[in-house]
Amino acid sequence: MAPELTQMLGKEKLEKAIDEKSKEIKEKGGIKSIDFSDKDIKENEATMMVTTNYGNGKSETEKMKMINKDGKWLITISK
């Protein structure tokens, strides 16, 4: 995760959100697969649609923004 995201949300709030999402994923039977589409990569920034497929047969699609920092792609949020 991008350090900027941790700074914006605060470590405690971010950890709570991760905990809640982890419980939600377990309730959905875990993650079966993740698919990426509509990738738009410009230099060190990218946006894409990410579909998470769960073990219970359901899926969720969301737009995700990433930045390349020191050769690693990290999740961030739009400004």
Shape: flat
Radius of gyration: 14 Å
- Give the percentage of residues in beta strands: over 45%
Low-confidence stretches: none
Roughly how many Å apart are the termini? 15 Å
Would you tell me the structural class of the helices and strands? Answer: alpha+beta
Mean pLDDT: 89
Major sheet: arrangement of strands: 1-2-3-4
What helical percentage do the residues reach? 25-40%
Order of helices and strands: HHEEEE
* Sheet with most strands: 4 strands, antiparallel
Number of strands: 4
Put simply, the count of helices is 2
Report on the structure:
Strands 1-2-3-4 form a four-stranded antiparallel sheet, with no helix packed on it. The relative contact order is 0.20. The model has no long low-confidence stretch (mean pLDDT 89). By secondary structure, it is of the alpha+beta class. It contains two helices and four strands, in the order ααββββ.
Keyword list:
79 residues, alpha+beta, 4-stranded antiparallel sheet, 2 helices, 4 strands
Layout: helices, strands, pairs:
Elements: H1 3-9, H2 11-27, E1 31-42, E2 45-54, E3 59-69, E4 72-76
Antiparallel strand pairs: 1-2, 2-3, 3-4
Concise account of the structure shown:
Helix content is 30%, strand content 48%.
